[in-house]
Automatic annotation (TrEMBL):
Family designation: In the C-terminal section; belongs to the class-I pyridoxal-phosphate-dependent aminotransferase family.
Species name: Mesorhizobium dulcispinae
Domain of life: Bacteria
Protein name in the entry: PLP-dependent aminotransferase family protein
Molecular function, one GO term: transaminase activity
Stored SMART domains: HTH_GNTR
Pfam families with a match to the protein in the record: Aminotran_1_2, GntR
InterPro entries linked to this entry: Aminotransferase_I/II_large, HTH_trans_reg/aminotransferase, PyrdxlP-dep_Trfase, PyrdxlP-dep_Trfase_major, PyrdxlP-dep_Trfase_small, Tscrpt_reg_HTH_GntR, WH-like_DNA-bd_sf, WH_DNA-bd_sf
Domain named HTH gntR-type: residues: 18-86
Keywords carried by this UniProt record: Aminotransferase, DNA-binding, Pyridoxal phosphate, Transcription, Transcription regulation, Transferase
PANTHER family linked to this entry: HTH-TYPE TRANSCRIPTIONAL REGULATORY PROTEIN GABR
UniProt keyword Hydrolase, yes or no: no
CDD domains linked: AAT_like (cd00609), WHTH_GntR (cd07377)
Length: 458
């Protein structure tokens, strides 16, 4: 269509839980996606739209503002408003990025600014401007030992390394403990960063069967025999994506099986600080074979980009240090220095407690809006919404994106085909509880096949 569009694209507006201005934007996005509206089509004046819909002019103005923010339309002075040629640049609300929510009562930007200023005053410029290759300075490793002590006994600094985030330390572990072509065992649904890391380094992943308590030890033994694997990756606390916390009994069974099979355990543990109590870590149950990675990004802030690693012994740390030098070189001194100072002062723990409280509040909102279909984890940053045979998560994610909502389908976490389908919903990226409610209500409408949901045929 050239020239000015008609108003037929507004016909599916209907009723729904969303504010009418958002339903206008959804209808516009759906019309552009279906081809009813083409790039370059001119929309009628806002007053005409308001009269057609029987709404206030401010409602249409708000809808146009949101549509411009999503890159659906553009306005040219003196010419009018036109449908843009590109894809929407930004979802209205992100339920895909798993980050801690802004904690109530604490102003993180102010804390970061004052923390950096204080660090610069107290630290020598030479220390902050120099390379720090290897596992970190003694002071940084001591702070790491203090943080890791929540999972068990305080470790000697010789068994601790500091890295620029969990991904950098996971890479160092895999590079130091495996060779190209080796198989790493994990859950069938696992952390996407591990999947990307295995692909980038030429390692293979194989899935181990599970039940309601997590990975099954008997299946682990079968997969070790089948693949000759020597490394097992586990995310036992608030598992990503299922939010399951593996009970102590199952952890002990897996630790015994890992010992029997001579496996190295890589324990990825970003979330346990969000729980007031957790079952014993594999670092405590099998310290002689466990590499334990704990990042501050999920419980304090990704801004710090700092993580700590505990290894079985000092010799393993030396191999980790060599891998760090060959990849990321070092953790950034300024961010690491600030993170370690927050750990020593107790501020990191205070922020974590506030993040935990906000996560609990957001889980409560999710339970109220998505009242059935998932098992909530009280202080998790995310939840897993299983779909069974009802829908395909990839199709639902496409529908949601067209409606301005980003969610994560099962395929992003899948190691093996045929895994139970579902959606991971991250609750922390929304700027407020109100925005989260808005996004979850929109998702509920999509899941129920309500007006404007563009329900896929399956």
């Amino acid at each position: 269509m050239n020239g000015e569009s008609d108003l037929g694209w507004l016909s599916p507006l209907g009723e729904g839980p969303q504010p009418i201005y958002l339903r206008i934007v959804d209808a516009l996005a759906a019309a552009r996606s279906s081809g009813r509206l083409q790039p370059g089509d001119r929309l009628p004046p806002q007053r005409e739209l308001a009269r057609f819909l029987g709404v206030d002019l401010t409602t249409v103005t708000r809808a146009f503002t949101e549509a411009r923010r999503r890159n659906l339309i553009d306005a040219t002075a003196g010419r009018g408003t036109f449908v843009t040629p590109g894809e929407p640049e930004e979802p209205i609300l992100d339920l895909s990025m798993n980050i801690p929510p802004a904690p109530l009562g604490l102003n993180l930007p102010v804390l970061i600014r004052s923390g950096i200023e204080g660090l610069l005053k107290r630290s020598s410029a030479e220390a902050l401007l120099s390379y720090h290759p290897g596992p970190g300075s003694p002071a940084e490793r001591a702070a790491g030992s203090s943080w890791l002590a929540a999972t068990g006994d305080r470790l000697p600094v010789e068994r601790v390394a500091v890295g620029s985030g969990a991904q950098a330390l996971l890479a160092a572990v895999l590079l130091s403990q495996t060779r190209e072509g080796d198989t790493i065992l994990s859950d069938a649904l696992t952390y996407p960063g591990l999947i990307a890391l295995a692909g980038a380094t030429g390692r293979k992943l194989a899935a181990v069967g599970r039940d309601d308590d997590g990975m099954r030890p008997d299946h682990l033994e079968e997969e070790v025999r089948r693949h000759g694997a020597r490394v097992l990756y586990l995310n036992p606390t608030l598992h990503n994506p299922t939010a399951l916390t593996m009970p102590e009994g199952r952890r002990r069974e897996l630790a015994r099986m890992a010992g029997k099979l001579g496996l190295t355990i890589v324990e990825d543990d970003p979330y346990s600080p969000l729980q007031t109590s957790s079952p014993p870590a594999f670092l405590s149950l099998a310290p002689e074979r466990t590499f334990h990675v704990a990042t501050l990004a999920k419980c304090v802030s990704p801004f710090l980009r700092t993580a700590f690693l505990a290894a079985p012994n000092a010799e393993a740390i030396e191999r980790i240090a060599a891998a760090i030098r060959g990849t990321t070189m070092m953790a950034p001194p300024l961010m690491t220095g600030l993170a370690c100072e927050w750990v020593r002062s107790g501020l990191a723990g205070e922020i974590t407690a506030a993040v935990r409280a906000e996560a609990e509040a957001r889980q409560k909102i999710a339970r109220e809006i998505l009242s059935a279909g998932f098992a909530p984890a009280e202080s998790s940053l995310h939840l897993w919404y299983p779909l069974g045979e009802r829908r395909r998560s990839s199709e639902l994610a496409d529908v949601a994106r067209r409606r301005g909502l980003a969610i994560s389908p099962a395929e992003e976490f899948s190691v093996a085909p045929g895994v139970a389908d579902g959606l991971r919903l991250a609750l922390g990226a929304a700027s407020s509880r109100e925005r989260l409610e808005e996004g979850l209500r929109g998702l509920r409408s999509i899941l129920s096949g309500g007006p404007g949901s563009s329900r896929p045929q399956v």
